[in-house]
Amino acid sequence: MTRVSMTVNGKAVSGEIEGRTLLVDFLRQNLGLTGTHVGCDTSQCGCCVVHVDGRSVKACTMLAAQAEGSSVTTVEGLAQPDGTLHPIQAAFREHHGLQCGFCTPGMLMSAADLLQQNPSPTEHEVRDWLEGNMCRCTGYHNIVKAILAAAETMQGGMPRAAE
Amino acid sequence: MVENGIGARSLRKEDQRFITGKGRYTDDINQPGQTYAVFVRSPHAHAKVNGVDKSSVADMPGVLAVLDGTDVAADGLGNLICGWAVKSKDGSDMKMGPHPLLAQGKVRYVGDRVAVVVAETYAQAKDAAEALDVDYTELPAVVDLAKAHDAGTLVHDMAANNLIYDWEIGDGAAVDAAIAEAAHVSRIDLVNNRLVPNAMEPRAAIGTYDSGLDQYTCYVTSQNPHVHRLVMAAFVQVAPEHKLRVIGPDVGGGFGSKIFIYGEECVVTWASKKIGGRPVKWTCERSEAFLSDAHGRDHISHAELALDADGNVTALKVETKANIGAYMSTFSSCVPTYLYATLLAGQYKTPVIHANVKAYYTNTAPVDAYRGAGRPEASFLLETLFEQAAKEIGKDPAEFRRMNFIPKDAFPYQTPVALIYDIGDYEATLDEALRLIDYKGFPARKLAAESRGKKRGIGFSCYIEACGIAPSAVVGSLGAGVGLWESAKVRFSHTGKVQVLTGTHSHGQGHETTFSQLVADKLGIPYEDIEVIHGDTEKTPVGMGTYGSRSLAVGGEAIARSCDKLIAKGKKIAAHLMEAAEADIEFKDGTYTVKGTDKSKAMGEVVFAAYVPHNYPPDLEPGMEEGAFFDPPNFTFPSGTYICEVEVDPDTGVVRIEKLVAVDDFGNVINPNIVEGQVHGGLTQGIGQALLEGAIYDESGQLLTGSYMDYTMPRADDVPSFEVVTSAGTACTSNSMGVKGCGEAGAIGSPPAVINAITDAIGGRVEMPATPQKVWAALQGMAQAAR
How far from chain centre, in Å, is Cα B282? Predict the structure, then answer.
């Protein structure tokens, strides 16, 4: 057993784990943060995306031990502590960007990283970025719409640059 | 008018929990003392199981139990069943081979359950499952559907030639006569490719036995918890029905694959008792899901369409082979028969139709309903054949369809394949789709594409489906083992808040929102004051669940009728309170008024009087809670026109969807956001079938497409944004809301539109999925033939 310590959603956490424990299992099993989901076993679906030190990472593809000392944000930590939604969360609700909700946490975390890196993406750039996140319900139509809308909100309502 | 009533684009009630990570799916549930199950699955497509050496893992760390088919037999557990008895044309019963929870002497597909290991941790269970020694003797496998009849090897000894049934519908002699007299006959051979449903949430189950209460609880990824309870109790006999509670918490997509009662949920519930009552949890891995979830489609068909000299369709003849896989899954038998061949009239007035369907066992995973279930196969066959026929006789494909449409004044319309369509207006949806795609502008767009070195094509699909499943007496006469009604309860509390209990169960459709809108509209109370409860057999009235686009058209009608009963009871109370005759009381927007006066009582006051009946009608029961069962008088018939434009790159064979227009007639619409979202998702699954997806087994029965590395799921950059129109169509006559159902249409209508567009672009048809390799090879072949 190994001891790992990290910051998750702003709180210092630690736990005794087997060396083979994946980050996603540490989050789900040890910390009870079940918002991060597991949808495949080949690092394809993106249901498990979290932020590690500010960048989106598939939590099924990283050992918990590799996150030692890191700052991890999961979907549970995306809204403000007072419950105010992140613009990407609000946009997914506003634009019906989710149906069954299973891929949603990974989609939100991935999209939030996209908008950090590229605050005004085109539709093509959004679709390209989402290559690592699968959704079987929405056909991506409203997810793309929601991300573009969130980009506008985060830009202070300024129109996006033309494609 | 209430806010968030019928027709409003209300934001979903479900979303707050899903966007904040507070959804509660089966694998999110952990209970004190929980143990973990891992299934040992057959690595062979067909083999004798000579023995399972439990001692090989008994001493491994954490192992609590190893159970195999001998334990299942010793405890007298029954088999999984197919609940729809289809008879062959000679009157004989379908050949349902035994489907045990764990293999008994033989395995029949790669992934077949052989044993289960229960251990303290998941890792320990997995380690032991990998180490378990199972002795097999391999047998030749039947994999190819086309060769199943003469394979010489039997999947089940009781099914000669691997034939489950040889079924027919329609007037074969009349069809043959019409074909003999036809001015033109279009003939087609086509394959409907096998798909893996791939809900993003893998299947999971947690079984618990409480010895104090002698009660069993099973959490399971289910579209229909009550059907799970029924089959687990009545057939598998894990527990008596009144001692078994089945809970489907939040369900992460299903598309049919979570209708079925699988062995895993039965085994974990039984295993909990075997290990003394500790909870036993199983969560499917994706690779395991590819092997063991019921697959969809998988048909081989030949069809002939007869035309007179003017281009009127005079007959349709269809011969189909359907792959059922290694065992008959829960509803497998009805998919290639009553959900397929009965739809072969499509939107057309074809006077005579005959279909013959032969269903076969193979050593592959079971095949059952997947989004659309039979109707996509019918629509693909028909719309591909109609497109081909139009081209062969030199007619515009849109106008060829139009001249053969059932006219809008011909309803109700009896088709030659059993169904009676209640209402529709096929020209209206065709015209709107033609307008949206700018059909007149297509030649110019084609020319422009040619100047860029691309081949542009346009393809049509005018689909119909039968939803609102289903009138019980009708399906009973066709072999269904259950009634397909739905039920509901609507319950006010003292303070005027409402609980809606439904037997249907959302797995992404947003029932908590749609049903709240319906009830808000009916009762005139705030949307926020309504809570929808579903998915738990202990809380909800018995219902048949969610599939076949039935939840609103059937389950919603049970809710609407419960509301009507509440309104009627409230009238009696309001009349008493206002000292008026019941006949003089009117109800509108949540208020009872005495006709022609300004006297009124709000619903909340009436409800309070019902629960605090101090001043109350003497002969009336207190309380405001009503329920209803609704058995629909007919199916519903959503229909529409989808038009697709593609560009093909002749150098690479890559197909790009430039535009996809979907115009649907779903009758009346409760929440347009949700309905459009259903269409978007269905379109993408249909595009997946047309361009990307296909389950492939090799000759020995190994699944080659067993992960997301090998099976091509549609991703965001594979599909365009869509143009979808779902505004009110023709109001359905089979329920008071006029709704038809919208969950499957996208997946039914889109594959032929995409394939027809590719055919139009390149001048020849390729089988689905139309991968770049196939399209490129077809173009090379045509170029060679031309030289």
Answer: 24
Q: How far apart are CA B562 and CA B627, in angstroms?
A: 5
The distance of A49 to chain B (nearest Cα, Å) reads: 12
| Pair type for strands B184-192 and B47-53 | unpaired
Residue A40 is classified by DSSP as: -
Q: Which of A100, A105, A142 is nearest residue B680 as measured by Cβ atoms?
A: A142
For the whole model, what pTM was predicted? Answer: 0.97
Q: Count Cβ–Cβ pairs < 8 Å, chain A vs chain B.
A: 179
Which domains are seen in chain A, by residue range?
2-77 (3.10.20.30), 87-154 (1.10.150.120)
For residue range B230-279, what is the model confidence (pLDDT) as tens digits?
999 999 999 999 999 999 999 999 999 999 999 999 999 999 999 999 99
A44–B198: do the CB atoms touch at under 8 Å?
A: no
Interchain proximity A39–B20, CB inside 8 Å:
no
Q: Which residues contact B256 (CB under 8 A, 6 or more apart)?
A: B197, B223, B294, B296, B368, B369, B370, B371, B373, B547
| Residue A149: partners with Cβ closer than 8 Å, 6 or more residues away | A91, A94, A95
In whole angstroms, how far apart are CA B251 and each of A100, B199, B315, B576, B686?
A: 7, 9, 44, 45, 22
Tell if the CB–CB gap between B200 and A41 is shorter than 8 Å: no
CB pair distance less than 8 Å for A131 and B717: yes
Which residue, chain included where needed, has tokens 């006559």?
B733
The CATH architecture that domain B485-630 belongs to is 2-Layer Sandwich (3.30)
Q: In this structure, which CATH number among 3.40.50.720, 3.40.50.300, 3.30.365.10, 3.60.110.10 belongs to the domain B140-190+295-393?
A: 3.30.365.10
| Domain B422-467+634-787 matches domain B485-630 at the CATH topology level | yes
What residue in B sits closest to A43 (Cα-Cα)? B708
CA-based nearest distance B681→chain A, Å: 4
Nearest chain A Cα distance for residue B725, angstroms: 14
Q: Chain A contacts of B16, Cβ < 8 Å?
A: 93
Please identify which residue in the block is written with the tokens 């199983």: B282
Whose structure tokens read 């089959």? Answer: B231
- Taking an 8 Å cut-off on Cβ atoms, the answer to whether B20 and A89 are in contact is yes
ipTM of the complex: 0.97
Record: contact A131-B709, CB cut-off 8 A: no
Nearest chain B alpha carbon to A139:
B681
Partners of residue B255 in chain A, C-beta under 8 Å: 136
Give the tens place of pLDDT for each residue, B669-726. 999 999 999 999 999 999 999 999 999 999 999 999 999 999 999 999 999 999 999 9
Contact B344, B376 (CB under 8 A): no
Q: Give the gap in angstroms from C-alpha A160 to the nearest C-alpha of chain B.
A: 18
**Architecture per CATH, B31-80+95-139+203-283:** Alpha-Beta Complex (3.90)
